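S1.2 Input.
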Amino acid sequence: MVTGKVLRYDHARGYGFVAPEIGGDDVFIHVNDFEFDKALVGPGARLEFEIEESGRGLKASNIQLVERAPASVPRASLPMEPHVRAVDDGLCDVLTAKEFTEEVTECLLTAAPTMQASEIMNVRQHLVRMAHGHGWIEN
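S1.3 Output.
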């Protein structure tokens, strides 16, 4: 079993992504694999799960709740989204592949909330390869 933190979870569609604490790629989670009340899931919740390889990437199964999501913060009081720079100082952040993937996931879920998980995972893979080629992310 692996433990990880929920990065994003869409209650209406019943899916999201969790970042394993051991590192590596984000893992797809689906409400059908929860063995607890789905209302307890949200960004920041800690889950314990098994990782399976599927035709579409990594998928969690036998998901147990370790720690429920923290109380939500009103959107207006949240800091600026990480992919938006307040001041253009002419510098570019070089991200780790994990950081880049998390930001891409957030952007895709915000910009195109109707995308299916398999589409998100496919787009992320292509963008990571492109980012590596341009030196935008660390090796």
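S1.4 Remarks. The beta strands are 2-10, 15-20, 27-30, 46-54, 57-67.
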